[in-house]
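Exercise 3.2. Students should predict the tertiary structure of the chain below and write it as structure tokens, then compare their answer with the key that follows.

Predict this chain's 3D structure.
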Amino acid sequence: MPHVIKKIDEMVIKSIILQHWREIGRIGRSSIIATEFVLGVNGRRADIAVLSDQFFGIEIKSDYDSVVRLRDQIEVYGRCFDRVSVVTGQKNAEYCLSTLAPSVEIWCVDQQCVPSLLRDAQAVPITDTISMLQLLTVKQLRRLTSISTQGASRSHLLQVAQDLPRDVIYGAVIEQFYGAYATTSGAFWKLVGRRKVSLEHVKQLSRFAKTRARIETERANKTKFWEDWRSTASSIFSEKLESECTEHKSVNQSIQSPYHERPHQVGYANEY
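Answer key:
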């Protein structure tokens, strides 16, 4: 029986589609996977990028996500990946089918977390060399152009590199992607093992997973420190207050009338 999750958000869909693609053989332990992959200098990010037998770009649109900018996003994907896939919730499925180009593959994840292919599409090899070059770092551009001058600007390197053959540029993109994400992908597949891909597994795909884990640990330690401090301070204050109350009571009991009589007897003893 399909497992029902109350809120099928972007992270849930990521885990579902990666698991399904693994089951159908599209990806495997040798696949390099990245999340939030930066697409050059335009500020766009691919929700998932996969290097397998092809270079995939995957955009996730859950029922909680806006599709206002989807067409523009997918146009950028098409200039950076061999194959573009959109994985949507049921709410946005019809919009994706009617709006996106036939070259875009469309999947849908229903409320029972079951993925289904709504529209297949063939891979279209990247031909936009400028967009491919934008994916490269300055260091990689220097290697590609054999310009070792540290002062060479990125714009100058891009201008020189754009005259290189498409396959050379594509090879540099793949090499850089592999170098940047092979370690985190290896850790991801090792963590998954024979289990199904889960939300916790997907979090490990981030290049900053270790940094985020360290920050979370530091935050937890700081929270615990202040909780312990408040508990200790409260305990000390309570003990001190109790001690002062006891001392005050003891002092009151030791105070006697200057006539060694009880207060209500003073001044009345010889009236009769």
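Discussion points: Confidence is low (pLDDT under 50) at residues 266-272. The first helix runs from residue 10 to 23.
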